[in-house]
Design a protein that fits this description.
Radius of gyration of chain A: 20 Å
Oligomer: homodimer
Structural class of chain A: mainly alpha
Largest sheet of chain A: 3 strands, antiparallel
CATH class of the largest domain in chain A: Mainly Alpha
Strand order of the largest sheet of chain A: 1-3-2
Strand content of chain A: under 5%
CATH topology of the largest domain in chain A: Four Helix Bundle (Hemerythrin (Met), subunit A)
Helix content of chain A: 55-70%
Largest interface: A-B, 41 and 41 residues
CATH superfamily of the largest domain in chain A: GntR ligand-binding domain-like
Chain lengths: ~240, ~240
Amino acid sequence: MPSDAYPAPFVIQRNLVDQVVDYLTESILAARFAPGERLSEAGLASELGISRAPVREAARLLESRGLLVSRPRRGFFVRSLDVAELNDVFDLRIGLERHAFERVMLRFDEDIEQSLKQQIERLCDVASGHDESAKIEEDIAFHRRVFELAGNPRLLRAFDDLSFELRLCITLITRTHDTPESIAASHWRLLDALRSGDPERCREEVDYHIGVARDSVIERLADGHNSANHPNNHQ
Amino acid sequence: MPSDAYPAPFVIQRNLVDQVVDYLTESILAARFAPGERLSEAGLASELGISRAPVREAARLLESRGLLVSRPRRGFFVRSLDVAELNDVFDLRIGLERHAFERVMLRFDEDIEQSLKQQIERLCDVASGHDESAKIEEDIAFHRRVFELAGNPRLLRAFDDLSFELRLCITLITRTHDTPESIAASHWRLLDALRSGDPERCREEVDYHIGVARDSVIERLADGHNSANHPNNHQ
DNA sequence: CTGATCCAAACTGTCGACAGTCGTCAATCG
DNA sequence: CGATTGACGACTGTCGACAGTTTGGATCAG
């Protein structure tokens, strides 16, 4: 008997907490909740037709993901990032991506190349369309693939943790209008760098790639979307 | 921890969740709970004289810190790391420390040097004693100081998140018996590398330093402490 | 004696309720 | 008229309870 292991998701018995986590995550990233907005436990619970306990536990999880902040005796608020925090997120991302790319480079082979090529092609497919959300997700998916290929699950988790804040950064602004060609080209350059086997060059390409993304976000944030977005840190 | 908001801690009104988080964290890291051990919500709650709700919320938080793993409908278990996971933790640590050291190097000045010198001296103070726990904490404190000086709170939080797993790695084994001199010397070398302003050299020193720590842990894990530690890894 | 089956105890997931706290706003006072 | 105080309402922190599930042992067939 396979008594040990395998949660066996035959019948996916999702508990309420996970469902609430997904619901809240999507709601925040789809900007259905405004940054800084207070989330009422009771309100959410009754809205979802459940009790407050699962909502509270879900909120704790979202807090650890950086999507919510809790103020004792006040409740949970949707995280709102200022420019400094946004810079910090991208700075950490650079550190993580450098590491992931280096690890991938060390084990680069035909399979990895194919895998990344496929990912870029999927990115190209949606890049010509008008589904901005899909572009963002495929962009992130490419980078996530790199972290998968790095072969370190813990490193991947660090990226996943950060990616929620990353999406939050992007949610805060209107999406960039890069051309499909430029989006594709910038990712082909990363693959080329990996292929070259030159660590120095790879670092530079990663720094440039992430730097462009960061500047794009910051630029738009400065363009006016920052107004009336008082960050939720007081006194 | 990572959170913001310093709302006048005149009267420290700690809620139960935070207290339970601290209690559990300390219990796990002090090896009062065995790796892989099941934690009964009801048991803990009655033991602490509280209800299960705060215990559950605290456990969720510990899960996000990597100290507990939850199995649906089964409860929470103390995380137990196998050699592969342990390698992953240290690999991520290398990535983070490289980045932190680089950032510190870019803004290196007299104040930073003094701050790190103080930290190393505190490390030396405890290194000659017999309080192994203090040695570990001061060792981690030095590295945490580097992350603070890097000037990126998000990067610091990433280290804090990882540091719990790091402590867990160390908890799993008997502590290394490095001499006080070698402990001090290895950290002086890191400071020297920072002072040199040479990124390449800094990376190498960091890689070496963390690598030694990793090997030390792995070596002792292989020495026999791994037996009967069936990992409870899922997801 | 081995292995499958069944049952009771223990536990998790979820709920509704209560008490204490915080923010708001109107009434009061200088 | 502006500042202060106090009460009201909303909400969080915490608790005890119930139902369905898992676990481990007792029971029974082979």
